[in-house]
Design a protein that fits this description.
- The structure is a single chain.
- This protein has 777 residues and is α/β, with parallel strands linked by helices.
- It has five domains: 175 residues, Beta Polymerase, domain 2 (2-Layer Sandwich), CATH 3.30.460; 163 residues, Four Helix Bundle (Hemerythrin (Met), subunit A) (Up-down Bundle); 131 residues, no CATH class; 208 residues, Beta Polymerase, domain 2; 47 residues, no CATH class.
- The protein contains 31 helices and 14 strands.
- The strands form four sheets. Strands 3, 4, 7, 8 and 9 form a five-stranded mixed β-sheet that branches. Strands 10, 11, 12, 13 and 14 form a five-stranded mixed β-sheet that branches. A two-stranded antiparallel sheet has the order 1-2.
- Helix 27 runs parallel beside helix 29.
- The radius of gyration is 34 Å and the shape is globular.
Length: 777
């Protein structure tokens, strides 16, 4: 623990020096108007706070700073005297925290310093990384729950400002330690332990986990912390983060018999010794005993046990462990299961356990794996655990009482809907991920409760499609749009959809942010189409048509974004409508109107004449400044459209693009001029390209250029002579695709490329189009 403190202090000083050089020092004014330095402190929680770290423990931390009011001093330019790099105290403190965490956790050639867990901060994983002192105070006063009081018992300054650390301790003291006896803490702690037991049982590790299992370290800590929470306000000697020091105080105050206190202390040291030896073996943070006899024997020897007459090292170790665990279980049960308060402080008086609300009992007491058996869950134990976590959160996660009540109201409907789901387990797992990302369970559950139809559609998405589920999980704000739009109405026309997509894209302030907004709008519309399909509102043909209209709209809006950006830099290309135009040609599923969920876009970019140059940047002096050759303009335009819609991050891109069907494939120009395409089709195009061009369709850009391209394509597909082995060539190519891509001989089933699959139908239709289309346009 002292080593962790020292490394945190060192890393903090390094991080502060780096950020001070970039932003200056943060400052604020107190109520008296005096300017003060904005201090920063690192608060240790858990084992670090109690100075009880193991060899492989991670460290639980809170990061606090003096005040949200104020900003950094900035950095003065030695030449101009101006200050730059001024940011708010909050932004500075968050960046300082991020850098500190990076220094501590980044793996180098020497390994990492410590793993860091920040989930005990206000609002858990959803909260900011650093909080001002006042923000902490408001949060704990307004939202703090018993588990947070329990966690803050361990809070201790580990690095940074000693004054701020003391202020934090003074601020949280009345929140943790109440002046009146607080018997209700017992019930909440018992609930937490019940949830831990349920999770362990679901994983099948309860009997092997010396930390969380029955008679384990956590039960000892819960016993000690219960006395601290209940009596700490009246007995300051209990206000210590160290478990053994608190246990000594409990003994001195007579709250537990001396024999029980000694037994708990011995059990605590014994179990922590086991934990340390298990972790130091492989440097892993584990609390599980070895499952095999040999591993237990090795551990027993490490603990100092030796074989004696009639008993092995393993047997002696297991007997000692059992004795300690049974004592812990007895004391824990006497405290929590009878519903009584610890008696010594109020001798002769019994305090009744507080009643638990019925809403809590609905899920906590009755939803077991066996209760899920009628609902077609493949793994009822895992899904039962996830449903409990959905309602109650992780053991140290803040879930409001209203959120729990809202979930209890949703639960019967949820289980009913799962009867019709193809994969109920996946639906629950994705719903859990959605709630975790959705900006707070209370808001999510409230919104889902407003419409049974939306709730049903969302669960069908979660239980049917990981692709659509990922959209909803990554963009939980989409739900607001669903409720606003009347999403069960017939989809918009192509023009209306284009206008809506373009309006969404205009929200950005740069080309990059506008493309990001465009991608978000596309994914939202795609989710709506998917929900309609899964609810049976649209058949498969209508769904494919809707997805194609969406792709058309996105390409049209994307081209408008790219044109606006490129024109602003270089001006418009010279020439008439056809000569200067740019067009996007769709092929494959996009061209034929058969887009599916997750389909990529097969495209050709083409343009009129590449000769001439652009008009130059608007408003430039002289006007021709920034002018570039037309061919360079078209390349930049095509590249901007490609890169904008196909961002490197899969979660940000609108579509995957395939531009290999252009003349010369990868070796050809990104944007092929019409005259180049004509020469290529006349001289070098192959039979498979006739098939591809059967599905060509202008999507966006210049109508004149698009029409000219289609004339070239039609002349090649339907008028140019066919090779003598045209039919045989198609058959050879189809056979090769079946062997090399479908590979059904290896036991695969490929409904697209396999024998009798979609590609066979496509090839039949394309062959008939090419051969009969000459006489039957």
């Amino acid at each position: 623990s002292r080593l962790a403190d020292a490394t945190l202090e060192t890393a903090l000083r390094i991080a502060q020096a780096e950020l001070h050089e970039r932003y200056g020092k943060p400052r604020w004014r107190n109520p008296a108007g005096r300017r003060l330095a904005c201090e920063y402190a690192v608060i240790g929680m858990g084992k670090l706070g109690g100075q009880e770290l193991n060899f492989s423990s991670d460290i639980d931390l809170l990061f606090i700073y003096s005040s949200d009011e104020g900003e950094t001093a900035g950095v003065r330019d030695p030449y101009t005297g101006r200050r730059s790099g001024i940011i708010t105290n909050h932004e500075f403190s968050v960046r300082l925290t991020q850098r500190l965490i990076q220094l501590m956790t980044e793996t180098t050639g020497e390994g990492h310093v410590f793993r860091i867990d920040t989930r005990l901060r206000p609002e858990g994983a959803q909260g900011a990384l650093a909080y001002s002192l006042r923000s902490c105070e408001v949060y704990y006063e307004s939202w703090g729950e018993i588990w947070e009081r329990q966690a803050l018992i361990k809070a201790r300054l580990c690095a940074g400002s000693a004054d701020l650390g003391r202020d934090f301790q003074e601020m949280i003291r009345p929140f943790i330690y109440r002046r009146t006896l607080d018997i209700s803490a017992l019930d909440e702690i018992a609930h937490i332990k019940d949830r831990i037991n349920t999770q362990l049982a679901a994983g099948g590790r309860g009997g092997l986990n010396i930390k969380l299992g029955e008679g384990g370290i956590r039960e000892i800590e819960f016993i000690i912390q219960s006395y601290q929470l209940i009596y700490g306000g009246k007995e300051p000697i209990l206000q210590t983060p160290n478990s053994l020091q608190a246990l000594l105080a409990i003994k001195d105050l007579g709250f537990l018999p001396i024999a029980d206190c000694v037994a708990l202390a011995e059990a605590y040291v014994f179990l922590r010794d086991i934990e340390h030896r298990v972790q130091v073996t492989h440097g892993l943070q584990t609390h599980d005993l070895p499952a095999d006899p040999h591993g237990l024997t090795v551990l027993a020897r490490k603990m100092g046990f030796r074989a004696s007459e009639g008993e092995s090292e393993k047997g002696a170790f297991e007997a000692a462990l059992k004795d300690h665990q049974e004592i812990v279980v007895r004391i824990f049960e006497s405290l929590f299961r009878r519903g009584d308060a610890p008696p010594p402080a109020e001798r002769g008086k019994e305090a009744p356990a507080p009643e638990r609300p019925e809403s809590a009992m609905t899920l906590e007491d009755s939803l077991s794996p066996s209760d899920l058996a009628p609902y077609n869950f493949a793994d009822p134990a895992a899904s039962s655990t996830l449903l409990r976590l959905l309602r109650n959160g992780e053991p140290f996660q803040h879930i409001s009482a209203r959120a729990k009540r809202l979930f209890d109201e949703l639960l019967p409907r949820l289980l009913y809907i799962t009867l019709d789901l193809p994969d109920p387990d996946r639906a629950v797992a994705n719903l859990y991920r959605f709630a975790e990302k959705g900006g707070g369970r209370e808001a999510v559950f409230s919104l889902l409760g407003e419409s049974e139809r939306v709730f049903e559609a969302l669960l069908k998405v979660f239980g049917s499609s990981d692709y659509l589920s990922e959209i909803a999980i990554r963009q939980p704000g989409i739900l607001d749009a669903i409720f606003r739009e009347g999403w069960l109405a017939r989809p918009k026309t192509g023009d209306a959809l284009l206008a809506e997509i373009q309006a969404a894209a205009r929200k950005g302030t740069s080309m990059e942010t506008r493309f990001t907004s465009l991608s978000e709008a596309k994914r939202g519309e795609e989710l709506l189409i998917g929900m309609r399909s899964l609810l049976g509102e649209d058949d498969i043909l209508a769904t494919l048509a809707d997805l194609t209209r969406l792709a058309d709209a996105v390409l049209g809006a994307g081209l408008a974004i790219a044109e606006e950006e490129i024109d602003a830099l270089y001006g418009a290309p010279s020439g008439g409508a056809e000569a200067a135009g740019f067009a996007v040609i769709g092929l494959g599923k996009l061209g034929s109107g058969d887009m599916n969920f997750g389909s990529d876009l097969d495209l050709i970019f083409t343009c009129g004449t590449p000769d001439g140059e652009t008009s130059g940047r608007s408003g430039a002096r002289p006007p021709a400044f920034g002018a570039i050759p037309n061919h360079e303009y078209y390349f930049k335009l095509g590249a901007a459209l490609r890169d904008g819609l196909s961002a490197p991050d899969a979660g940000e891109r609108a579509y995957e693009m395939d531009l290999r069907l252009r003349p010369e494939g990868r070796e050809g120009s990104l944007v092929a001029p019409l005259d180049q395409i004509g020469r290529y089709l006349d001289a070098r195009a192959e039979s498979w390209e006739r098939q591809a061009l059967c599905r060509a369709r202008p999507i966006a850009g210049s109508p004149e250029v698009g029409k000219a391209f289609m004339s070239l394509a039609a002349r090649f597909v339907y008028e140019s002579p066919l090779p003598d082995d045209f039919a045989a060539g198609i058959a050879r190519m189809r056979g090769r695709m079946e062997r090399e891509l479908a590979r059904e001989a290896e036991g695969n089933i490929d409904i697209k490329l396999g024998r009798g699959g979609i590609t066979d139908i496509d090839f039949i239709v394309q062959f008939l189009q090419i051969t009969a289309g000459r006489e039957n346009p």
